[in-house]
Amino acid sequence: MTTYFIKHELSEGPGTIEEFLVKRGLPFQTIEAWRGDRFPEKITGADAVVSLGGPMNVYEEERYPFLAEEDLFIKRIIGEKVPFLGVCLGAQLLAKAAGAKVYRAAKKEVGWGTVDLTGSGKNDPLFAGSSPSLEVFQWHGDTFDLPENGTLLAIGSEVERQAFSVGDRAYGLQFHVEVSEKIITDWFKADAAPYLVHFLKIKEKYQAEAERIYRNFFV
Q1: Got the DSSP string for the chain?
Q2: Residues 141-181: tens digit of each pLDDT
Q3: Can 80 be counted among the known catalytic residues?
Q4: Are 161 and 152 in contact (CB under 8 A)?
Q5: What does each C-alpha distance from 156 to 107, 113, 120, 124 come to in angstroms?
Q6: Rounded distance between C-alpha atoms, residue 53 and residue 207, angstroms
Q7: Residue 32 appears among annotated catalytic residues
Q8: Which structural domain, as residue segments, surrounds residue 13?
Q9: Of 6, 56, 140, 144, which has the highest C-beta tally within 10 A?
Q10: pLDDT classification of 65: cutoffs 50, 70, 90
Q11: Hey, which residues does 179 pair with through a beta bridge?
Q12: pTM, to two decimals
């Protein structure tokens, strides 16, 4: 059994999620969807599937054909109740696969912000032990409707839908729980300084909250 990471471009990797698995000796494989890697035909025995971020939009399937393949893959995951975690683009892909609309948000979110757990979020196993308000890192221009069978777990002041579940095995996080100093530097290059300064101020708490989510999801 193993965890599958789905990558959509080179710089959008699993970050601290991978570090969590490595520290615990948990096996994983990476599907480089943007490079044409095929999605597994058999997923019933998988420990989990984690779909990461990317610069594309879920509705750009003609430009990025792998998005259509991933949509079908996530539909299978939902149907077979394999644990799934979608991050940013991955969350939007989960929403689409579950029948919801994905579209441009009224405002693009980039940088640090706060999301608040809903009543359902406070009682959901994924956020067990989490603070009711979480400081998170954002970088997205799209948002999504909540799927008919979805549960809203966290909300934001600028973009409302920040975390949700579909059933009890599939989760979407609009924010980037996986970021590290290296990831922020790789993403923003010469413009990374203000984001890094704040990250270093909250690093210990941020990583503790992230690890709590990983532990709740994987263990």
Answers
A1: --EEEEESSTT---THHHHHHHHTT--EEEEEGGGTPPPPS--TT-SEEEE---SS-TT-TTT-THHHHHHHHHHHHHHHT--EEEETHHHHHHHHHTT--EEEEEEEEEEEEEEEE-HHHHTSGGGTT--SEEEEEEEEEEEEPPPTTEEEEEEESSSSEEEEEETTTEEEESS-TT--HHHHHHHHGGG-HHHHHHHHHHHHHHHHHHHHHHHHHH-
A2: 999 999 999 999 999 999 999 999 999 999 999 999 999 99
A3: no
A4: yes
A5: 12, 8, 15, 18
A6: 19
A7: no
A8: 3-218
A9: 6
A10: very high
A11: none
A12: 0.97
209 is catalytic: no
Q: State both tokens at 45.
A: 């025995």
Burial category of 34 from C-beta neighbours within 10 Å (exposed 0-12, middle 13-18, buried 19 and up)? middle
> Please, which residues bridge with residue 138 across strands?
111
Q: How many domains does the chain have?
A: 1
Task: Report how far residue 173's alpha carbon sits from residue 167's, in angstroms, rounded to the nearest whole number.
Answer: 15
* Amino acid present at 150: G
- Token look-up 């979480």 returns 134
Q: Which residues pair with 161 in a beta bridge?
A: 155
For residue 180, what is the domain's CATH number? 3.40.50.880
- CA distances (Å), 170 to each of 93, 194, 198, 208, 211, in order? 11, 33, 31, 22, 18
pLDDT in tens, 114-132: 999 999 999 999 999 999 9
Q: How many Å separate Cα 124 from the centre of its chain?
A: 17
Structure tokens at 113: 């912000």
Catalytic residue among 12, 88, 140, 209: 88
